[in-house]
């Protein structure tokens, strides 16, 4: 019951921000998983929002179960070698904790560099935002990023939930509970942040 509740909550919370006809993934589609969250999602916050459990999912395994182990691989390289027939799932993780303001709305520097590199390729990119809040994504609208998901911190059911959404088994019907500003000037704290 707990696993199903966690899965259902994750499915309902994942928001599809964009899909330019690249999803759902086909049964035998080849994908490479990259980014700071490629090997392990941030499932929850830290501090009083932190929960330790050994029941978290494995996104790589979840994808292997859905499209075949021969079609999925992970690359932790700064400039991953990607074949022409692969779609790229770029999982960008960015944690947070109450009482610790973020310095900006940017992704981690390693993910920014990775996305810049991926934009030099011809492959379609599926960007997954495994973040504690909004991040700046406007610069990726005119790139080879063809789909964007706000997964936030999905809990222990996040791996299976995202995999099912990517293959069309689950509907990404979540709604944004927050605004993703296009620029700092659009935020109410612009005049006094940081401070």
Shape descriptor reads globular
What are the secondary-structure elements, in order, as H or E?
HEEHEEHEEH
What percent strand? 15-25%
Number of helices: 4
Give the number of DSSP strands. Answer: 6
Query: Which residues sit in consecutive blocks of at least 5 with pLDDT less than 50?
Result: none
Give the strand line-up of the largest sheet: 1-6-5-4-2-3
Largest β sheet strand count, sense and barrel closure: 6 strands, mixed
**Helix/strand structural class:** alpha/beta
- Helical content class: 10-25%
The residue-averaged pLDDT reads 89
**Radius of gyration over C-alpha positions, nearest whole angstrom:** 16 Å
Distance between the termini: 45 Å
Short description:
The chain is α/β, with parallel strands linked by helices and 195 residues long. Helix content is 21%, strand content 18%.
Walk me through the topology.
Layout (H helix, E strand, L loop, with lengths): L1 H12 L1 E5 L10 E5 L24 H9 L4 E3 L11 E9 L14 H10 L6 E7 L13 E6 L7 H9 L29
Parallel strand pairs: 2-3, 2-4, 4-5, 5-6
Antiparallel strand pairs: 1-6
Helix pairs in contact: 1-4, 2-4
């Amino acid at each position: 019951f707990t696993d199903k509740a966690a899965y259902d909550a994750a499915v309902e919370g994942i928001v599809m921000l964009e899909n330019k006809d690249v999803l759902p993934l086909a049964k035998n589609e080849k994908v490479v998983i990259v980014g700071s969250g490629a090997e392990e999602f941030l499932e929850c916050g830290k501090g009083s929002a932190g929960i330790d459990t050994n029941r978290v999912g494995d996104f790589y395994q979840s994808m292997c179960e859905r499209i075949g182990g021969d079609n999925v691989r992970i690359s932790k390289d700064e400039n991953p070698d990607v074949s022409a027939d692969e779609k790229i799932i770029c999982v960008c993780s960015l944690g947070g904790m109450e009482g610790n303001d973020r310095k900006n709305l940017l992704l981690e520097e390693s993910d920014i560099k990775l996305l810049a590199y991926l934009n030099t390729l011809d492959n379609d990119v599926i960007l997954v935002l495994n973040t504690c809040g909004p991040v700046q994504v406007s610069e990726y609208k005119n790139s080879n990023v063809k789909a964007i998901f706000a997964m936030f911190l999905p809990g222990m059911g996040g791996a299976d939930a995202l995999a099912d959404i990517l293959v069309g088994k689950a509907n990404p019907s979540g709604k944004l509970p927050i605004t993703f500003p296009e620029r700092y000037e659009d935020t109410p704290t612009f005049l006094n942040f940081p401070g």
